[in-house]
Write a structure and sequence with these properties.
The protein is of the alpha/beta class. The protein has two domains: 179 residues, Rossmann fold (3-Layer(aba) Sandwich), CATH 3.40.50; 74 residues, Alpha-Beta Plaits. 37% of the residues lie in helices and 19% in strands. It contains nine helices and twelve strands. The strands form two sheets. An eight-stranded mixed sheet has the order 5-4-3-2-1-10-11-12, with helices on both faces. Strand 1, helix 2 and strand 2 form a beta-alpha-beta unit. It starts with 9 loop residues before the first helix and ends in a 7-residue tail after the last helix.
């Protein structure tokens, strides 16, 4: 069934009062509204303010968890002291530091480049299809395309993936090509949570996202820590009611921002743990 709306209950407050608190946030569709083109997306000034509030609090870490490249994620979020997980877990960047890439991905760089060239060829014959080359992965967006081209586009991109030995996955009006390595948002989120000390007793985690790739993070974090708070942002016409693994849901990006504002206020209370 559909995840229930997020209630501010004493039980939820208990789950969010640990130290440290790590807040994993998808970007597109969670911090910013989905835009027709990736370059059109904007994180509002109000959302940036609450992120700044959160990262200024003791024992709170904010992580932007995105399918975008790490550099593009940092540009879009534009808040200091935020950790970045980009390219669906392939890149990780500490606050104000450069991203690192898993060593088992590096050898696929020329293969992804070849896939990008072929995907551009496929896009040229289909109006409204945009190819986003993220160096280590590739996104083929068709939100602006006629719905009638979806089947042929899927077939063309699937053929590229099969011939070059890449993995293909699907999001909201986007096809993703990635190296065939065991990495996703969930694996990367758990690895960083461990690094930040959030898998010990007495800690807290939140993860929010709106798309299929965020489901990996919901499942992995709840498996690592049953009290992790997982939030699906919005439901869309293509979703089925039982599609999400998240425990809770919020209506849209504005409601998500309101939850983060509440969370920042709650963590400022005298009863909240200090570093």
């Amino acid at each position: 069934m559909t995840a229930p709306a997020l209630p501010a209950t004493p039980a939820l407050e208990r789950r969010l009062s640990g130290s440290p608190l790590v807040v994993f946030l998808d970007v597109d569709g969670t911090l910013s509204q989905i835009a027709p083109r990736p370059t059109d997306a904007v994180v509002s000034a109000e959302t940036r303010r609450v992120l700044c509030d959160l990262v200024s609090l003791p024992a709170v870490h904010v992580v932007a968890l995105s399918g975008r490249s790490a550099d593009d994620t940092r540009r879009l979020v534009n808040v200091g002291k935020v950790w970045i997980i980009g390219n669906h877990g392939i890149e990780v960047a500490p606050p104000d530091g450069p991203p690192t890439v898993r060593h088992d991905v590096a050898r696929y760089e020329p293969i992804v480049a070849a896939a990008a060239k072929r995907a551009e060829d496929a896009a040229r014959s289909r109006a409204g299809v945009l190819v986003e080359d993220k160096r280590w992965t590739l996104s083929v967006h068709y939100r602006l395309a006629d719905a009638a081209i979806a089947a042929s586009l899927h077939a063309a991109i699937a053929a590229i993936a099969a011939e070059l030995g890449l993995r293909i996955s699907q999001g909201k009006k986007v096809l993703e090509l990635r190296p065939p390595v065991a990495i996703d948002k969930g694996i990367a989120a758990v690895d960083l949570a461990r690094k930040l000390g959030a898998l010990r007793s007495g800690t807290s985690m939140v993860c929010a996202g709106d798309d299929r790739t965020d489901e990996d993070a919901f499942r992995a974090l709840r498996a690592a820590e049953a009290d992790a708070v997982t939030i699906r942002v919005g439901f869309h016409p293509e979703d089925t009611p039982d599609e999400t693994a998240a425990e809770f849901s919020v209506r849209d990006t504005d409601t998500m921002r309101e939850f983060l504002e509440w969370l920042a206020r709650f963590r400022r209370l005298p009863a909240s743990p200090a570093s």
